[in-house]
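Thread: "does anyone have the structure for this chain?"

Original post by V.I.:
We have the sequence but no experimental structure in hand. Need at least a predicted one for the grant figures.
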Amino acid sequence: MVLIGLVLLLIGIFASIPLLTTIGIILLVVGLVLNLVPIGGTRRRVF
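Reply from O.Q.:
Generated one for you, tokens below.
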């Protein structure tokens, strides 16, 4: 998702299409948040 967001962001900037730039920024931010936040209990619990 981060890669798709980055590609859309670059295409939007170079082709000067604001819609692609906005979608690219949104996908880039969501992809980074999903990569940094552990979802689904990925922490190892030691008893």
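V.I.: this helps a lot. The mean pLDDT is 85.
O.Q.: and The chain has two helices and no strands.
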